[in-house]
Specification:
Blueprint (H helix, E strand, L loop, with lengths): L3 H14 L5 E2 L8 H11 L18 E2 H12 L8 E7 L5 E6 L2 H18 L16 H11 L5 E6 L9 H11 E2 L1 H11 L3 E3 L2 E3 L12 H23 L9 H19 L4 H17 L11 E7 L2 E7 L2 H17 L12 E3 L4 E3 L2 E5 L6 E3 L2 E3 L6 E4 L2 H11 L3 E3 L6 E3 L10 H18 L9 H20 L3 H7 L8 E6 L2 E6 L28 H7 L15 E5 L11 H9 L3 E5 H9 L2
Parallel strand pairs: 1-6, 3-7
Antiparallel strand pairs: 2-21, 3-4, 5-10, 5-11, 7-8, 9-10, 12-13, 13-16, 14-15, 17-18, 19-20, 21-22
């Protein structure tokens, strides 16, 4: 039997070569065992694999029998998804974001559905969509924005109210139904959408939205919002008007005056009169560089989207932006059955910063002249600039983590000790600070004012030193002397199998920005041929703990959340530490002993 992964790869090629192709008979791929081993391989390494839903079903106890049971209930049509367990996480603004945690069996089936949908839809998604897609990220969205929004006059910042919570189920199924003609496959997706959720052990039905935390939620949201992408592309075709390159009257006049002055200079011999003409010629050149050269009467629209956040750049006037906003409002409300927030969907002049993905975005109006090839040009004028919003992002982050306090006398920021971290070891404290510092520096590496992160780096370093000093009840200078590794560096040493290493705080200018280069996103292969190690280990019918080999026993996967949490006190812990794996295939008897004691 041909591996299902190869079949999905072929489906992806067909979708890529023919965007209008309709797919049928997809449900049969859910009845093939090999794809569930691939799904398990995708899920088991995630920390959420050990997180329980409404029952005790996790990545632990995965086996061939489990796969066969899943296939059997899908084949006879008796499979019903369990409700998700609802939990909440606190957002930056203090509000609560609901998360839905499915059972592991539901996660397996959802991941299979995700692979099928991804193979079909990924090649036809818009190039301007970047959220929850392989090979794309916030940085690819920002890089595309920086490359394509050059010369924009206005920004339209898009904000959809409660996008994930307000997805209309019937609209979503109709959208998928245009591309996929398989009733059983569509009914399975509908069942997941209608599964409901449990909160405080009380059941609630779901009539709209896709639960955040589900495996298929991101791709379903992209399929839904792909309709918005296609609408904006149609809007762009009707809006864009290309006009011939025409010089402004003022620029033409100065150009003609400079040409005549040049002729007069050529006819004069060296002397005072010629020097005056040269000075006049230079003044005309300076004046020309201070006024627009092109008569900007053409209209253009550019667009970029990350999940439910999108930004539109308009080369036109404010009335054009109002018209675009009205068209978007009508489409999102009428077709997608959602609501565009009128308060948060702002129209901003490009000389003023617009907020997108945590960056401030603006178009420079710079008259600075720099040598370029054999001439002088305003090389920065009309280019896109990405800025770090220090007040709104960096300072808020520092206060939320209790890294700094504001001095009463002058209002300046002062690094302070993070007392809540003092119960950890010195190595763990430095590791926490370093990971937080590198995380923010890596994300904001594209900003033109990135060098200002030097101050953030300083505050983090001295807060770390003060935290260590608080823990050891000593002066900051003693901590610095204790861990000094050079003239101006310090770090905590630790032992590894490879030898002694030192954990030190990364400097802001040591961040490797290669992964943040301004490269255009490309379509990457979504489904590739790979090894299903769990499949081969289960089919070997050998217990990796006791060594028993034979087909007369049932074999299961024992799964743990993190290898580093193992103490090595039990025999099975010693084996897993030696193998450095989160999974171990064991016989049923050994698995019972692991959970209930040897």
């Amino acid at each position: 039997m041909k591996p299902t992964i190869e079949i999905l790869t072929r489906l992806q090629e067909n979708s890529k070569n023919n965007h209008d192709e309709v797919f049928t008979k997809l449900f049969r791929y859910l009845l093939r065992p090999d794809i569930y081993y691939t799904a398990f391989h995708n899920l088991y390494a995630n920390n959420g694999a050990a997180t329980k839903g409404v029952n005790d079903d996790t990545a632990d106890n995965f086996s061939e029998d489990k796969v066969n049971k899943i296939i059997e209930v899908l084949r006879n049509g008796t499979y019903k998804p369990k409700p998700v367990r609802r939990t909440y996480i606190t957002k930056k603004n203090g509000k609560q974001r609901p998360l839905g945690l499915p059972t592991f069996t539901d996660k397996l089936i959802q991941d299979v559905i995700r692979m099928i949908l991804q193979a079909i839809y990924e090649p036809i998604f818009s190039n301007y969509s970047h959220g929850f897609r392989p090979g794309r990220s916030c940085h690819t969205a920002l890089a595309q924005l920086k490359h394509e929004f050059i010369g924009a006059k206005w920004f339209v910042e898009g904000d959809i109210k409660g996008c994930f919570d307000n997805i209309d189920h019937s609209v979503l199924i109709n959208i998928i139904g245009k591309k996929i003609k398989d009733v059983r496959f569509l009914n399975l997706i509908r069942n997941f959408l209608k599964a409901g959720y449990m909160e405080d052990w009380k059941y609630y039905g779901t009539y709209s939205g896709s639960p955040q935390g589900g495996i298929i939620s991101p791709i379903l949201a992209n399929i839904y919002l792909n309709e918005l992408d296609k609408f904006v592309e149609k809007l762009k075709k009707s809006f864009d008007t290309q006009t011939p390159y025409t010089l402004t009257p003022q620029y033409k006049k100065l150009q003609s005056k400079r040409a005549s002055t040049k002729k007069r200079i050529d006819r004069r011999e060296a002397g005072e009169e010629r020097d005056k003409l040269i000075a006049y010629y230079i003044e005309i050149g300076k004046e020309m560089r201070n006024i627009p050269a092109k008569l900007c009467n053409d209209k253009k629209l550019k667009y970029v989207r990350y999940a439910d956040d999108f930004l539109i750049a308009v080369n036109g006037n404010k009335q054009d932006c109002e018209w675009i906003k009205a068209q978007l409002t009508e489409f999102i409300c009428g077709t997608l059955k959602m609501e565009l927030s009128q308060e948060k969907t702002l129209i901003t002049h490009s000389s003023t910063c617009a907020r997108f993905l945590g960056y401030d975005v603006r178009v420079r109006r710079s008259q600075e002249v720099k040598p370029w090839k054999n001439s002088k040009q305003r090389t920065l004028n009309n280019t896109v600039e990405l800025l770090i919003p220090f007040k709104d992002k960096i300072e808020k982050y520092l206060f939320s983590k209790k890294v700094v306090k504001q001095r009463a006398d002058n209002g300046k920021l002062e690094p302070v000790a993070r007392v809540d971290l003092t119960r950890h070891t010195d190595l763990e404290i430095v590791t926490v600070f370093d990971s937080e510092l590198r995380g923010l520096c890596n994300y904001y590496y594209l900003a033109s004012n990135y060098r200002n992160m030097n101050y953030f780096s300083y505050l983090m370093e001295y807060s770390c030193l003060k935290t260590l000093a608080w823990k050891h009840k000593c002066k900051l200078s003693k901590i610095y002397d204790k861990y000094r590794i050079g003239a101006k560096r310090w770090g905590v040493s630790y032992e590894t199998k490879a030898g002694k290493k030192i954990r030190k705080l990364t400097k802001f200018n040591e961040i490797d920005g290669k992964k943040c280069e301004d490269i255009m996103p490309i379509i990457v292969t979504i489904v590739t041929k790979g090894r299903t190690t769990i499949d081969s280990r289960l089919k070997a019918h050998k217990c990796e703990l006791c060594g028993y080999e034979g087909t007369d026993r049932k074999y299961e996967v024992h799964h743990i959340n993190k290898v580093k949490n193992l103490k090595g006190k039990e025999p099975w812990e010693v084996v897993m530490i030696a193998k450095r794996r989160k999974t171990m295939v064991v016989c049923y008897d050994c698995h019972q002993k692991i959970h209930h004691g040897f």
